[in-house]
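Table S2 (continued). Query chain:
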Amino acid sequence: MIPFNKPFIIGSELSYIEQAVQSGKISADGDFSRKCETWLVENHGGAKALLTHSCTAALEMAALLCEIEPGQEVVMPSYTFVSTANAFLLRGANIRFIDIRPDTLNLDESLLDAACTPNAKVVVPVHYAGVACEMDAITAIARKRELYVIEDAAQAVSSTYKGKPLGSLGDFGCFSFHETKNMISGEGGALLVRAGKDVRRAEILREKGTDRAQFFRGEIDKYTWRDIGSSYGPSELIAAFLMAQLECADTINAARLATHARYMQLLQPLQQAGHLRLPIIPEHCGHNAHMFYVLLRDEACRSRLISYLADRGISAVFHYVPLHTSPMGKSMGYGEGDFPVTEEISQQVLRLPCFYGLTKKDQDDIATALFSFFGGRG
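Corresponding output:
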């Protein structure tokens, strides 16, 4: 069996968890939390990084920091995970979906300006598969229209755009350390705050609306309720596991990039024969090999291939159901035909196994199965 994903231990995860327990503090914001946050700032920039229990939590915090009010609009691609939209719907925002580019599957920046009405407050570029959106164009439009930019960088830890780390190019960056990501902690995420002026409120929102973080730094003699907020921090056990992974980030990413490059080489003949399309990665985008996907002819072909691979012990999956065609999207007034590129891509994309520890033999077996399905030889 070749699973679609396989969580892994690479270094000192278990030792660090034991250290956290022995320290006497396993709730949020111990030494390992601070080490993880320092790593994120050193590697991605920004004024402050705050660990969260998920990328969903980071997105919700970003929405709060942008002070979204009911009726204001947030522009984002329909081709994304539900958390991207939910974070703003919870604040009463209206979602304005936008179509994606057919090459990178990212938000189509050429459609952004026209999608922004006077009610627009935020734009959310989603860096699909760890490949950067066209951030120069997006941030230029955002500046012109005085919009916040919140990067959904859930899949993009260690990725870059023109040499600059993703997550630090907008006002806020949101990361995920879910078990399917490059560096993992089971569940987990982080919010990257670019401007120092937003740090204090971000800390308060994360601490249930209190100034508890300042209290524990000795800056005040007691802490109290200051603002709205919630419990967004992860336990120290999660931070301990994550820190061990971050220490090995270069090793993890190098292995994934090697896997990605080998897939590209192995499957090139299938692309040349017109059976599938391989990922397109612009030269100015430094990706992290978060996933490897192929685009097939249509949904029927994809369904047959998923079943064919499953019969041979290989798990491959697809995503997303476009948000605008979902029941929730339809309740917001959207429907089929609104975003043709998104709808076509969503019926074609197939994700192949791509995780740390996937062997060359695994890849050979997957490639052989694909060649067999399309009637060729691997």
